[in-house]
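<derive_structure_tokens>
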Amino acid sequence: MRVFLTGASGFIGSAVIAELKAAGHQVLGLARNDANAAKLEAAGVAVHRGDLAEPETLAAGAAACDGTIHCAFIHDFSQYIENIAIDRRAVEAMLAAMEGSGKPFILTSGTLMADPGREATEEDAASKDGPGAMRGATELVAEDYARRGVRTMIVRLPQVHDKERQGLVTYAIAVAREKGVSAYVGDGANRWAAAHVSDVARLYRLALEKGQAGARYHAVGEAGVSMRDIAEALGKRLHLPVVSITPEEAPAHFGFLAMFAGRDAPTSSRLTRERLGWTPTGPGLIEDLDRLELEEA
């Protein structure tokens, strides 16, 4: 299968490329600049020049391939609402180009979309409240096209990690270094789901090959890692004291990350494992944090 991959030069996209190629698929990777194009060429991937902010360029890539995996997102949380709107227009353009084709399209979303305080499952629609609600609305666009002749699927990501990158935990590392302490909110019992990047890449491939139209899949290896455990692992690795802060102190301490730092979002992947035959085998989040490869501060 020839697969159009957005976010192809990124952390997760690079792992997806390796997984797809190992399974015999061809990849057409989106590149918005020369540096990204060079990285894709070095990986043996065909390059499609385009940009999320230019939806027609993404539509052309999707139309030219047998399936599409959409991993790209602009991770600038200072312009979160604007970036969600850009992403939704890009998704709409790609899906419109695929309408009636029966081709697979995988939308990337997040496990923080679900309502907090209980273990979310694949049967849960995106939350209508909280920080994930706006991006969750893009899930509804994909679900609509599942009824319009596109084999759309949603892959919800937790904190995706290896020894170098850890999703939102990467931002927490930067905050800890800046503030001189590794903090958690309240008793730190709130949980974030996690998965190793190699397991996530394999799930994208399995969904592409075997996934059902309209399905939601959770790329979750660990249902919930407590924020206190994360903060303690960071404190140990960064040689910083570990402290509890109040919810009222969180915005000043964490900045944009405060909207997630105290959120309890355990997430199940039981149905994903059963339906796709997916078994995570990578190391856990705390294990990767314990052997974190740190850049110089």
Remarks:
- The first strand starts at residue 2 and ends at 6.
